[in-house]
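hey can u check if this looks right to u? its 424 residues, i copy pasted from the old doc so theres a chance i mangled smth
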Amino acid sequence: MAETAPSLSPGQRWLVLAAGFLAWACAGQAIALYILLHRQLVLGLAGDVDEAVVTRWFAWFQAAFLFGAATGGWFFGWLGDRFGRVRALAGSVFCYSLFTLAAYPATSLEQHLVLRFLACMGIGGAWPGAVALVSEAWPDSSKPLLAGLLGAAANFGFVWLAAFAYFALPVTADSWRLYLLIASAPAVFGALVALVVPESLRWRAARQEAPPTTGPLQELFRPPLLGVTLLGIGLGAIPVVGTAANANWVVPWTDQVAQERARLTGESRPKDDKALTMMTRNGGAIVGSFCGGLLASWVGRRLSYFLISLGAFALSGVVFGLLDPADPWFQPAVFLFGLVGVTYFGWLPLFLPELFPTRVRATGSGVSFNTGRVVAGVVVLSTAALVGLFGGDYARIGVWSGLIYAVGMALIWLAPSRPATGRA
């Protein structure tokens, strides 16, 4: 039975939706940042190093993002259940914006790595805050579409940043620091969230009816919610590993091939090739994100997740195993890979909040989604350790890491076809 709760006015609902969407879109911009500029950053701070070193630092920055986001997802999810969704969401925006700003004057790769970890705590915290706030403000009938909208939000941030790099300001040895200033601008938006966004009435009601006797994390990791939490972690891990340890490699791979082509032929590079690949992939991801919640509603939670995993597995094999960035079919294939592979992120905002009662929903969603980042971080670090074996070969890295989608094809059958809702 669907839960009933006090309602916000239509205007307040739209304000909540705008805040959740923009907070996660700005987080997407922050996620994209080091994927886009890492090569120029490494070469600018470490000098003319070989490709294996550049590849290894890409993996380390990805790991800093994953471990930082996991930590932030736990912390800000707990904060949202204890002190309110709005405070947690505003705090997460401040976190990823201000620590990105602090990286502007940093002069060593090690400093950037630490500041990246701290900024990514805010990125991880934005997701549970946005999802819980929006899902509790709107009626259940709207949730498939809202799940797709939130799933697409981060990709709007990716596409905007990539489009700016491709059409306006290519990422070069002279310009990469400016992108740190651009990505710090959402701090102003964080202040507006704290001042004008209404708090979840559903959260307020749950707090009044059943004041917590234990912390949200304690409740999640003991019966009866322990099994649900572990399931959520597993299902959240597959797309995060797929994105961070598999699909994201198409961007530095494109940059490597373009620079090598320019070196051999002497041709100029008036456009930023890696930015084009990021736009293509995340343009497809925007479309795919809208499909996730709708697909889950049409064919069921389990079958939809299985089909997404199957499609991502097949397309990863095509992109990394059969093509390369100079192939004319590469960009269309990357678009489809983004469309299918990111459909997960329209599925997760629908499924994960349904698993948990209101009193621990932000923490449960945050733990489920962001603990997967720990798994992904371990995979990425393992990849970094194997970079020497692969000789900086991005295609081989992509082929092997794409096996994660096959794990998702099996894991989903442990999930219920429709999670229970309506619990306080």
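DSSP finds 19 helices and no strands in the chain.
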